[in-house]
Every structure is written in structure tokens, then in C-alpha cells.
Amino acid sequence: MRKENHHIDPNKVQKYLNNEMTDKERHLFEKEMLESEFDLEAMEGLETVSSSEFSSDLSDLNKEIQKKTKTAVKFPYLKIAAALVLIFTFSYLLTTWIKNNDPLTNPSKEIVSKEKSIERDTLSAEADSVSLAIQQNEQQKPDTSVNTLAFEPEITKEEQKALEPVVAEEPHAEAIALNEVESKSFDEELVATEEDLTEKVKTEVPQSLQESLSGRVAGVEVKTDNNITERARKVEESALEEVVAAPSKKSALPSVAEPKADDSETKTISGIVLSSEDNTPIVGATIIEKNTANGASSGIDGRFYLDVSPLSQDIMVSFIGYNTEEISILNKEEFTIVMEPDISQLSEIVVTGYSTNRNDTEVVVNPRPLEGYREFNKYIKDNLTYPQEAIKNNIKGRVVVEFTVTEEGDLQNFQVIKSLGYGCDEEAIRLLENGPEWEPGTVNGYYTDDRVKMTIKFKK
Amino acid sequence: MLRLISQGLKIFSRNNKNEFSDEVLLDRFKSEGSLEYLGILYQRYTSLVYGVCLKYFKDRDKSKDAVMDIFEYLTSSVNKYEIRNFKSWLHVTTRNHCLMELRKKSVEINLSENHEFIMESHTDLHHEDGTSLDNNIEALKKCIEQLNQEQKNCVSLFYLQGKSYQQIEIQTEYPLKKVKSYIQNGKRNLKTCIEKSA
């Protein structure tokens, strides 16, 4: 006989107290009561009152309890009503917005909204079955056109709170489909963030727009980003091309930029930036695709990733306090870049490369200052005059100038490869032109014209 | 569509709740916070709580108030403790509440009676119900022999002959309270005896 959770029957108690039972019934009842200490003690008390007193007191008590607990039941219905009103309002607003922006309408949206409100307010057991129904509805959505799907983000935004317990949160952003309407706002976003080189991964503006129209997204900040991904992911996986593009913020730790799915348009390079002093990683070094505004930063582990044009030849790696490195990226994807500490405080000359391609069997001697680089550097240091404009605007950095050293040793064809502006470019050229003589380069012993690239650092 | 769903949900929820076991009701209350569950659960035991309070307070109105006070107490305390057996836990809670109330007012309690029952409760709470006396008749008979006269009489009449307290009272001429006391103590002794022989 079960003792646990044996529920006393008030009717029996009444009868017992009223002596309405037979001896056998009494015995059985008594035996029952004996099994539980609680029953036993209770019977002791109950036997002090009459049957009618007992039943009246008990009904009073039960009524009171029901009064206290039934009120709780009403609330959910209030909540449902309130939520419904909210959703109706939002749906109305949405349909208005939709009509303004796009000829297509989304008739199934309202139904989905209503169903979602129920989802939120019912007990979890029921919610499971309802949410299943909703998901089935969602899966039918891929039949609708791309245009209508773009509006899912709006719904999601409003209902985020309502859906929180039900919708699983997806930390990793995935496929986002955009239509013409969305791309307009994207344009603005892309232009605005282009200037920020060190923190975000960028492809060129036209390129990313292209990609976004065909179903890809560059790592660009968009206000509705998170919302889009949560909803869009469920619906669009089956309907649209899948492309994985992650906002750069999400992968902040090891490296700021994440590689795109590889295709013919870009090439991904990666590497690690180390300090020559102790081979430790350099955090936050800037890696820039030469002649572009495309760059990345090295992460805590010194690693970086950068998507570059396949036509690019060089990257520039710089970090304050270290000499800037220009690295050729032809035929190579993985780099270990060792940076040397910058010992000069004021300005610096770095020979970064030579432009001509030579046959490996040729004996090539590159042009160099007649009196050597040490003298040359000294000259630059002594003669560099910081332009007024640059001082005023607190300009620091490097100017990269390329020029020809003719076989006579004349300097010609100055080209600013990397400009600093504010008069620095002009100052760099002036220094070189008026500077010490250059020894022309030779190929197999014969003097020849050659291009030389020099970096002049401007530091306060 | 909307109405169908909400109606269906209402029906679904109403019907089931009353059939939930104590554990389920308790769990639901803890996780969802809806007082309705606790109310359903408590109503199963209202008579018992009321009865125990009656025993201590000997006053109907005071006992009724106590029943409601204990319910209030439940709403906050169930979340604090892990309750394996709600019925036993409720019993202890009720008794503690009554004793505390009585101490506040320094009313005399009939202690001697309590002692017996308190001792009894220890055994009840510890033992699983499996050791029901009905099960092992042979061992039972042997152990009954070892009881003292009064206990033996009452226990035999009650358990073996299926007589009620009233009948036993008439037959043995022991006072009713004593009859109960003999039966309960005898039962406890038998339990220990049977367990020893098992």
C-alpha cells in the first residue's frame, strides 16, 4: 500500500466523524490512517470536531485557497490580449511601411505574428507544439520571393523580446540576403566605414556591393545585423545561395579580419608578425595591401588575415617603433614577417625595394648613395625640415618615393608611391633631389638606369 | 485559427493539472511560478493540516487561520528547499508552525501524548512503506507473541481480526486513547521485530 502521497478523502473523514461507517469500514479507515504519521496526527485533531463542523471549515478553507490561486490564472490571458494588441499594431505599421517601399506584400506575415504571441504566453509544453507549427509555416516561406524575405528583419526586431525564450540565439552570423532596398543603406554604411582601416575587414566598395547583391555580405557594420541573421538563417538556408560572411567584430580575438570564401576575385593571405628582438608576436601591427585602403591588424597572437586582389604585388607591414616592412606577396600566401625595432627617433630612410625584374643569372648591382647609406641617412636626418602644415596638423608617418637613378647618376622621375600630404611629400622629394650623389646600378658590370624606392619617415 | 489554438490550449491545461502528481505540481510551481499549481497541491492536504492544527490549538478558527498562514509560508519556502516527499515535509512544517505559535502564547501542551507520537513519527519517516504488516504473516505471528499483553491484545484484534477502535474498546474495556496507543506502539515493536527476523 502506498504511503507516500496518499491523499486523505475528506468525504471519508466526514463519514467517520459522523459514525456513518460500518465497523469494517471503520477498521479499514483506521488502518489507512495508521500508515501515515501525518494522517494519524490529523485524525487526532479532527476527532475533536463534529462532522458538520469539519465539512464547513474545510469548504471555507478550500474556497479561500482557490481565491488566492485562481487570480494567478487570469493574468496569462491578459498578457495574451496585450501582446495581441501590440502585434496587431506592429503588423499594421509594417504593412504601411511595406506598401511605401515595395509593391509586393507579405500576407502571411500577420498570421506568423499572431502565432508568435501565443508561443510566448503558453506553458512550455504547449509552446513546443505551437512553435513547431510556426516553423513549418516559416519553411514554406522560401517559396516567396527574395524581396519579401528582406522584411523579416523588421518583424524580428519588434518581436525580439517576445521570441527570446523560444528562439535560440545564434552567435555566429550567417547568410544574409539583401535586395535592392537594403543595398541602399549598405552603400552608406560602406562609404562611412571605409576610412577605418585598422579594425574592420573591407573589400572595395563596388566589389562588396556586387557581392551583396548576389548574396554575399562584406564584413560591414549594419544596424540590423544581428536580427537579420537570427531570422534569416532559419528561413533562407534552403532557399538562397549560402555564403558565409562574418562581421569583423565577432572574430576579434585571434585576428580582426576573417577570410571570405575563396573565389576568383580575391586572394587571401595570412601570416604572423614577429619582433626581431625576441621573436614574440607583435599585436596590432598594420598590414596594408599596397596602394589601397585595404588593411588588417595583427591579433593577440600576431596573426593576421587579409583579402587582397590577385593582382597585388606587395603588402606594407608597419607598427609604431618598428621599421616598416614591404613584403612581396606574389606566389605566396603565408608569411612570417619579422620587424626590426626602429632606433631612429626623428626620421628614417628605408630602402624598400627595387622595381625591375632581373634574370637570376644576371649580376645586378643596385644603385646606392655614393657615400653609402650611413652618410645618406645622416644627411636626411640633418636636413629634414618638418613642413609647417604637417606640424600644425600633427602629421606623422612615411612617405614612399620612387625615382630613377640614371646611368649617369642623375635622379629623375620622382613618383610618390605613398603620400603623407601636408608638404611631407614635397619635402621628401626635395631631400632626395638635393641630397648626396647616387652611384648608378649595374647589370653585368654595365651602368644602367634603375628605379629606386625610398621611404622617408616623418616623426616628431 | 487563433481561437482554435487558444481554446485548445485552455482545455488542455485545465484537464491535466488536477491529475498531476505531487512532484509534478511542485516542479511546475517552482519553474513557472504559477500559484495555481501550489493551490491544487495544497488542497489535497488541507484536511490534514487543519486536523493537526486542531490537535495543537484546539480551536477551529485559530486552526483555519493557521492553515492559510501555512499556505502563505509555502509559497516562499518551497523554492528554498529540495522537497522529496511533500506530504512528510508538509507535516513537519505544520507541526513546527503550530509549536511555534504555541510557544508564543505559552499554552500548555499535553506533552505525554506528544512524546509517544513523536517517537512514532521517527520510525514512520525512516521506514519505507514496504514493511507492511500484512505481508509476512508468519513472522508477524511470532512477533506478536513477544508483545506485552495489552499491545498483543489490541494488535491481534485490530490487524488479525480487522476490528475497529470502537469495537476493541468495547471488547477489551481499555479506554479509546489507550487502545490507539497500544496499537501504535505494538505496531512499532512488531516492525522492529519483523525486520530483525527478516
Could you walk me through the main structural features you see in this protein, from its secondary elements to its overall organization?
The complex is a heterodimer of chains A (460) and B (198). By secondary structure, chain A is of the alpha+beta class. In chain A, strand 14 and strand 15 form a beta hairpin. The longest helix of chain A has 51 residues. About 29% of the residues of chain A have low confidence. In chain B, 77% of the residues lie in helices and 0% in strands. Chain B has eleven helices and no strands. In chain B, helix 4 crosses helix 5. The N and C termini of chain B lie far apart (64 Å). The relative contact order of chain B is 0.07. About 11% of the residues of chain B have low confidence. The chains are: A alpha+beta (460), B mainly alpha (198). The interface between A and B is large, with 58 and 63 residues.
Computed Rg of chain B: 22 Å
Widest sheet: strand ordering of chain A:
3-2-5-6
The amount of helix of chain B comes to: over 70%
Total strand segments of chain B: 0
Greatest interface (CB-CB under 8 A), with counts per chain: A-B, 58 and 63 residues
Structural class of chain B: mainly alpha
Query: Over the alpha carbons, how many angstroms does the gyration radius of chain A reach?
Result: 39 Å
Total helical segments of chain B: 11
- Summarize the biggest pleated sheet of chain A: 4 strands, antiparallel
> How many β-strands of chain A, per DSSP?
16
In the predicted model, the low-confidence regions of chain B spanning at least 5 consecutive residues are 110-131
Shape of chain A: rod-shaped
What is the succession of H and E elements of chain B?
Answer: HHHHHHHHHHH
Order of helices and strands of chain A: HHHHHHHHHHHEEEEEEEEEEHHEEHEEEE
What fraction of the residues of chain A are assigned to beta strands by DSSP?
A: 15-25%
Give me the secondary-structure category of chain A: alpha+beta
Termini gap of chain B = 64 Å
The main β sheet of chain B shows up as: none
